[in-house]
Design a protein that fits this description.
alpha/beta; Rossmann fold; three-stranded parallel sheet; two-stranded antiparallel ribbon; 5 strands
Protein backbone atom coordinates (compact mmCIF):
# COMPACT_ATOMS: atom_id res chain seq x y z
CA UNK A 1 0.00 0.00 0.00
CA UNK A 2 2.86 2.38 0.81
CA UNK A 3 4.42 1.82 -2.61
CA UNK A 4 1.08 2.38 -4.35
CA UNK A 5 0.52 5.63 -2.46
CA UNK A 6 4.10 6.77 -3.08
CA UNK A 7 3.60 6.37 -6.81
CA UNK A 8 -0.05 7.32 -7.26
CA UNK A 9 -0.53 10.02 -4.61
CA UNK A 10 2.65 11.49 -3.16
CA UNK A 11 4.32 11.83 -6.57
CA UNK A 12 1.22 13.62 -7.92
CA UNK A 13 1.20 15.99 -4.92
CA UNK A 14 4.88 16.80 -5.42
CA UNK A 15 4.57 17.32 -9.17
CA UNK A 16 1.45 19.44 -8.74
CA UNK A 17 3.31 21.71 -6.32
CA UNK A 18 6.27 22.08 -8.68
CA UNK A 19 4.08 22.71 -11.73
CA UNK A 20 1.89 25.19 -9.86
CA UNK A 21 4.92 27.28 -8.86
CA UNK A 22 6.07 27.49 -12.47
CA UNK A 23 2.58 28.19 -13.78
CA UNK A 24 1.95 30.92 -11.19
CA UNK A 25 4.90 32.84 -12.62
CA UNK A 26 3.34 32.77 -16.09
CA UNK A 27 -0.16 33.34 -14.65
CA UNK A 28 -1.70 30.41 -16.52
CA UNK A 29 -1.49 26.69 -17.04
CA UNK A 30 -3.20 23.34 -17.08
CA UNK A 31 -2.44 20.37 -14.87
CA UNK A 32 -3.86 17.03 -15.98
CA UNK A 33 -3.78 14.19 -13.47
CA UNK A 34 -4.35 10.53 -14.23
CA UNK A 35 -6.95 8.92 -11.97
CA UNK A 36 -8.92 5.75 -12.69
CA UNK A 37 -12.51 4.65 -13.04
CA UNK A 38 -11.99 2.60 -9.86
CA UNK A 39 -11.09 5.80 -8.00
CA UNK A 40 -14.66 6.91 -8.69
CA UNK A 41 -16.49 3.59 -8.42
CA UNK A 42 -14.26 1.27 -6.39
CA UNK A 43 -13.58 -2.32 -7.36
CA UNK A 44 -13.39 -5.57 -5.45
CA UNK A 45 -9.84 -6.54 -4.49
CA UNK A 46 -8.34 -3.15 -5.35
CA UNK A 47 -8.53 -1.24 -2.06
CA UNK A 48 -5.02 0.22 -2.27
CA UNK A 49 -5.16 1.13 -5.96
CA UNK A 50 -8.74 2.43 -5.91
CA UNK A 51 -8.23 4.52 -2.79
CA UNK A 52 -4.99 5.98 -4.18
CA UNK A 53 -6.77 7.03 -7.36
CA UNK A 54 -9.64 8.41 -5.24
CA UNK A 55 -7.01 10.53 -3.49
CA UNK A 56 -5.86 11.82 -6.89
CA UNK A 57 -9.44 12.84 -7.63
CA UNK A 58 -9.74 14.67 -4.30
CA UNK A 59 -6.38 16.36 -4.91
CA UNK A 60 -7.49 17.42 -8.39
CA UNK A 61 -10.70 19.00 -7.11
CA UNK A 62 -8.96 20.75 -4.21
CA UNK A 63 -6.04 22.03 -6.28
CA UNK A 64 -8.48 23.34 -8.90
CA UNK A 65 -10.10 25.54 -6.25
CA UNK A 66 -6.76 26.73 -4.87
CA UNK A 67 -5.20 27.49 -8.26
CA UNK A 68 -8.16 28.92 -10.20
CA UNK A 69 -7.38 32.47 -9.07
CA UNK A 70 -3.99 32.09 -10.78
CA UNK A 71 -5.68 31.01 -14.03
CA UNK A 72 -4.39 27.46 -13.58
CA UNK A 73 -6.79 24.68 -14.44
CA UNK A 74 -6.54 21.27 -12.75
CA UNK A 75 -8.45 18.31 -14.14
CA UNK A 76 -8.13 14.53 -14.21
CA UNK A 77 -8.64 11.78 -16.72
CA UNK A 78 -9.98 8.52 -15.26
CA UNK A 79 -9.31 5.61 -17.62
CA UNK A 80 -11.40 2.49 -17.61
CA UNK A 81 -10.10 -0.76 -19.08
CA UNK A 82 -7.18 0.21 -21.29
CA UNK A 83 -5.16 -2.29 -23.32
CA UNK A 84 -1.85 -1.98 -21.48
CA UNK A 85 0.67 -4.24 -19.77
CA UNK A 86 -0.91 -3.30 -16.43
CA UNK A 87 -4.32 -4.66 -17.45
CA UNK A 88 -2.75 -7.77 -18.95
CA UNK A 89 -0.98 -8.45 -15.62
CA UNK A 90 -4.26 -8.65 -13.68
CA UNK A 91 -5.20 -12.29 -12.98
CA UNK A 92 -7.99 -13.47 -15.26
CA UNK A 93 -11.40 -13.28 -13.61
CA UNK A 94 -10.29 -10.90 -10.85
CA UNK A 95 -11.86 -7.89 -12.54
CA UNK A 96 -15.37 -8.04 -13.91
CA UNK A 97 -16.33 -5.43 -16.46
CA UNK A 98 -18.85 -4.85 -19.19
CA UNK A 99 -17.78 -2.31 -21.82
CA UNK A 100 -20.62 -0.75 -23.78
CA UNK A 101 -18.39 -0.03 -26.80
CA UNK A 102 -17.29 -3.71 -26.84
CA UNK A 103 -13.55 -2.96 -26.94
CA UNK A 104 -10.72 -2.11 -24.62
CA UNK A 105 -9.54 1.46 -24.73
CA UNK A 106 -6.16 2.36 -26.17
CA UNK A 107 -3.42 4.53 -24.74
CA UNK A 108 -4.24 6.96 -27.56
CA UNK A 109 -7.80 7.29 -26.23
CA UNK A 110 -6.36 8.49 -22.92
CA UNK A 111 -3.80 10.74 -24.60
CA UNK A 112 -6.58 12.43 -26.57
CA UNK A 113 -8.52 13.19 -23.39
CA UNK A 114 -5.36 14.61 -21.80
CA UNK A 115 -4.72 16.70 -24.90
CA UNK A 116 -8.23 18.16 -24.62
CA UNK A 117 -7.64 19.21 -21.00
CA UNK A 118 -4.19 20.62 -21.85
CA UNK A 119 -5.53 22.63 -24.79
CA UNK A 120 -7.41 25.90 -24.97
CA UNK A 121 -10.52 23.90 -25.93
CA UNK A 122 -11.02 23.37 -22.19
CA UNK A 123 -10.09 26.91 -21.13
CA UNK A 124 -13.13 27.25 -18.83
CA UNK A 125 -13.01 23.75 -17.34
CA UNK A 126 -11.38 23.01 -14.00
CA UNK A 127 -11.90 20.54 -11.18
CA UNK A 128 -13.40 17.92 -13.45
CA UNK A 129 -12.82 14.19 -13.81
CA UNK A 130 -13.35 12.81 -17.29
CA UNK A 131 -14.06 9.08 -17.25
CA UNK A 132 -12.73 7.51 -20.45
CA UNK A 133 -14.15 4.01 -20.32
CA UNK A 134 -16.13 3.24 -23.46
CA UNK A 135 -19.22 3.01 -21.28
CA UNK A 136 -17.75 0.43 -18.90
CA UNK A 137 -19.73 -0.80 -15.94
CA UNK A 138 -17.63 -2.35 -13.19
Amino acid sequence: MEETYATNVFAVVNLTQIAAKLMMRQKSGSIVNIASIVGELGNRGQAAYASSKGAVIALTKTASKELAEHDIRVNAVAPGMIDTDMLRSVPEGSTQFNIGMKRLGTPEDIANACLFFASDLSSYITGQVLIVSGGAII
